[in-house]
Amino acid sequence: MFTLRQLEFAVAVAEEGSFTAAASRCHTVQSGLSHQIARLEEALGARLFERGPRRVRLTSAGEVFVRNARLTLQAAARLQEEMALALGSVRGRINIGQITSLHVVDVPALLATFRAAHPAVDVHLRVGMSEALLADLAEGLLDVALVGVGPQVPLPPQHRLLHEEGLSMVLPPGHPLAALERIPLQALDGQPYATLVPGAGVRRLVDDALLGRDIHPQLQYEVTHGELQRQLVAAGLAVSVTPASMAENMHGVIARPLDEPFQFRTCAVWRADPTPAARALLALLPSPKG
């Protein structure tokens, strides 16, 4: 009734919201893609897309079709990958996600080793916050995610602890709190504060610890990367809280451990049915630290 190429076209239109963008993504001409979508709709007896002047949207039938089309395309790709493995090579595509500030895994070195061992694998990496990466993993958009979370965040059974550590407060040079060897969380009260945006593991760990307690830092700076946190602190604009390993790698600031027993965990998490490429990558990950 339909081909894998037609399924690919339909998924691309749904994800791009445009026939033009979908054709570019699929390396074909728009007229050809539109013709194949029309043939697909005729064969199914249902319209899959509502064509608007600016954007294409899925119909209710289209939502059902595209959801199942993704599963079919994934199954077809998986079949090719498993057959390649049976013949002695790892092939296919791997989608990897990592948190913005990752210090316990040298990702470029890991990927270089992986590419040298498995040059036929198409590797894709993107950076995000832990909660978003875990959501994408659950939806099948990622194969492996390197996340940082507290123990209150549930992880699927298929995960590996890579590192566990406490948290440190990061201070500008000359800050009065730098005289302390360890800093109580209460010291955050009233301090101008720079932190990662919601969705980051360390943000949730600290926010949860502050709930119900009379500790109110002045939240002024919400950023997406630890380097900007460091710059804000080094400029004397704020204090911050980061994983201890991250604080140790920051220059121009002073780091002091918090005296509460925080447990920040860097973990590798993967899908319940890892592909051959995902299994090969996981085999290269370092042993747990901390």
TrEMBL record:
Gene3D superfamilies: 3.40.190.290, Winged helix-like DNA-binding domain superfamily/Winged helix DNA-binding domain (1.10.10.10). Residues 2-59 form the HTH lysR-type domain. It comes from the Bacteria. The keyword Ribonucleoprotein does not apply. It holds the Pfam family LysR_substrate. Keywords: DNA-binding, Transcription, Transcription regulation. InterPro entries: LysR_HTH_N, LysR_subst-bd, WH-like_DNA-bd_sf, WH_DNA-bd_sf. Belongs to the LysR transcriptional regulatory family. It comes from Stenotrophomonas capsici. The keyword Transcription regulation applies. This is LysR family transcriptional regulator.
